[in-house]
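Notes continue from the previous slide.

Worked example: a multi-chain complex. Inputs as given:
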Amino acid sequence: MTGKMEYLTFFNGHKMPILGLGTAQTLGDDVEKVIDAALEIGYRHIDTAQRYNNEAQIGRALKKWLDSGKIKREDLFIVTKLPLTGNRAECVEKHLKQSLHDLQLDYVDLYLVHNPVGFYDVDPKDNGKKMVPDMNTDHVSLWKAMEAQVDAGRTQSIGLSNFNSRQVKRIWQSARIKPANLQVELHVYFQQSQLRAFCRALDVTICAYIPLGSPGARPPGLTANTVNASKQPKRDQLTNPVVSQIAQKYGKTNAQVLLRYIIQLGVAAIPKSTNPDRLHQNFDVFDFELSPEDMDMLERLDKGPAGRQVRGYIPGMENHPEYPYSERY
Ligand code: A2P
């Protein structure tokens, strides 16, 4: 890589590498190979979740690297998430301990509540097949249990994912330990400008998932809009002519321009790839800077809420009182 990694600094002083590796849907034999390749390239921020069913394989790869002395624990930034079936105060410790066991780590750098919607605590790895919504999800008591994980040293920071501004604010107001980061869908077609401004005011950093707009095939459980499947927004960010024109100017790929744009917004990005060349490419975004004019051109590609890809991806979510996507941001 040419150019130097940039970092987001949390309110508590911890630093998150602005570019990380997304691992949703990286499964089976691919996982260890991808983590190996990514660490070799220089990735240090790895994003997973209990729900992704790959923590044990990630843990094996990390252990190999840590045992070999090629990498130190403090150089890594590992993020995982409380599954939706764990959204009750009494479940948090159990799930984080399980993640730490699988990841073979003593602590994670950031533990996120994966989603504001809660489900009953069935086997978290059943992939949503038998999940029944728990309509009594209480974010305030849940957050107290998240704070206790920081006190116990199991995570350095805590945060949220897929929460809307109202839900973030409620937790922020009641928190003894504030959320350090909010992970949400964010890409050039769905730029989340209001949510970004809102979080900036609270000193909550943002991490963008599906930063390339998720161009690949998705399993049915993650298909974007289960509310109205016939109205899937376009996922052609990588071939958008404005992006291509800018990419040509800098001698970069379209993916690199899309990622650089997000980084220059002051947002972290976690592109997923299982392909070694694309892993390289996605990491090589620190040797150029988009001009203010090019930033403006990319800003105009925003489709607002119409650009959102991911909505209720588990049947029944839409009826939950904490379903986050009914509100504008
Ligand atoms: P692959 O794993 O074969 O590289 P997102 O993070 O927005 O969900 O995007 C991930 C999808 O985009 C995956 O399907 C991944 O496929 C593909 N992808 C990742 N990096 C690139 C890239 N640099 N150029 C084109 N496609 C990419």
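Summary box: Residues 22, 210-216, 238, 255, 271-275, 278, 281-282 surround adenosine-2'-5'-diphosphate (CB under 6 Å). Residues 85 and 123 are 8 Å apart (CA to CA).
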